[in-house]
Amino acid sequence: MLKQRRKSVGVLALLALLAPVAAAQQSRIFREGSSWVQEITGSLATARNLHVKVDVGSVRITGGSEQGITYKIRTLACISSEDSARRQFEAYKISASVRGDTAWINGDWQGGRPRKFSGEFVINVPRDIVEARVETEGGSVSTKGITGRLDAQSGGGSIQLDDIGGTVTAETGGGSIDVGTVGSELTLHTGGGAINIRSAKGKIVAESGGGNVVLVSGLQGAVLETGGGGIQVKQCSGRVKATTGGGSIDLGDIGGPAEIETGGGSIKLGWAKGFVRAETGGGSIELNGVPAARAETSAGGIVAKFVSSGERSDSVLETSAGDINVYLAADLAITVRASIDLANGHNIRSDFTDIRINSEGGDYGPRTITAEGRLNGGGPVLKVRTTTGDITFHRASR
Question: Rounded distance, CA 373 to CA 377, Å?
Fold first, then answer.
């Protein structure tokens, strides 16, 4: 008999642990201008994780609370009748509880949704929270000051993140995404808004359906893609892949290889330590410091400066209609082969006597000009070709 009682007590204790712990909260309804406001404030016991899921409303999470989890929720009904407003507040069921090691805050519509209704969920959490998950069907999301992981999703609002220690995944149907500092990997997606990233210590994947993408500092590799906007990277220590359907691409200091592609915009690169592949459907290409590269454009000029440091291999510079200017470091060991297919009115010029220039045809048809030479004993092959345009080999000043 005693054994059965102990077993029953154990079962009841386990059920008590698994049962949701309701929040200690207060609620009031008041008039604000021409609208009615419901304000709910409350607190929850400290939990390792936080999960927020709301049908309507923006969500703002701030780390650093020393009093567990606290929240203030404001819902606003743009309607003159108090009774109608109260019915709307009752239809939007808001709940807060702790289940196991997770704190839950939910906003769930019961039935149809009114048009002129909005909400704001402001939540303060301990900085050392392990994971925060946020889902809102249309409002904005803002999170800062936590050391754990973050998963943020919005049906179409903007997302703002800063001072996040763990991995970050953020997705919105069309709003912008702004990121301050992230201490780990970063994965972002927006259906059409702009993406701005100040600093990330982990690998970066950022995709936009059409907005601009800007990365100020990345300590590992980055994959950046947009359907039509521009891409800008100031500094990234690892491999970079940048792709846009038609905008320009501007990369600064890249600590590894770079793969750059645009459907028609210009390409500009400051420096890269690895092989560079740059391709545009019609814009110009400017590579200011590369060990090796393959650059192609259908209708634009190419400027490329080759340096002796970094991962060197064979290179190709090619355009259908445009001039090509090549700058070669004085100590660069390289083999040069160049050609102009339709050279009438165009020529190959060189600051290097080791590059020999030859001309064929031209009296009654198209003239072809070629050039070949070995600098500093020769090395990886650099092929330079334009269908119609000038080619010039410059001695780099430094």
Answer: 9
With H, G, I as helix, E, B as strand and everything else as coil, classify residue 36.
strand
- Give the pLDDT score at 345: 85
Strand 355-361 relative to strand 367-375: parallel, antiparallel, unpaired? antiparallel
The whole-model pTM stands at: 0.90
Number of domains in the chain: 1
CA 71/CA 121 separation, integer angstroms: 7
Question: Letter for the amino acid at 123?
Answer: I
Largest CA distance in the chain: 116
Side-chain-side CA neighbours of 209 within 13 Å: the count stands at 11
Beta strands in 9-148 (DSSP E): 21-22, 24-32, 35-44, 49-54, 58-63, 69-77, 92-99, 102-109, 117-125, 131-136, 141-146
Q: Please spell the DSSP secondary structure of 196-226, one letter per residue.
A: EEEEESS-EEEEESSS-EEEEEESS-EEEEE
* pLDDT reported for residue 70: 96
User: What is the Cα–Cα distance from 77 to 96, expressed in whole angstroms?
Assistant: 21
* Any domain includes 298: no
Which of 48 and 23 is assigned the larger pLDDT? 48
Tokens of 211: 């907005």
Closest CA to 334 of 317, 358, 348: 317
N-to-C CA span, the chain: 93
Residue 325 in domain: no
The reported pLDDT for the residue numbered 309 is 86
CA dist 301 → 16, 100, 137, 259, 322 (Å): 73, 63, 47, 19, 4
Closest Cα to residue 272, out of 315, 319, 301, 229? 315
Quick one: which of 67, 68, 91 has its CA closest to 79? 91
Q: Which of 116, 1, 133, 135 is nearest to 55 (CA)?
A: 135
In a domain, 41, yes or no: yes
Query: Are 239 and 274 within 8 A, CB to CB?
Result: yes
Average pLDDT, the chain: 91
State the pLDDT confidence band at 3, using cuts at 50, 70 and 90.
Answer: very low
The residue segments making up the domain with residue 101 are 20-127
Residue 85 lies in a domain: yes
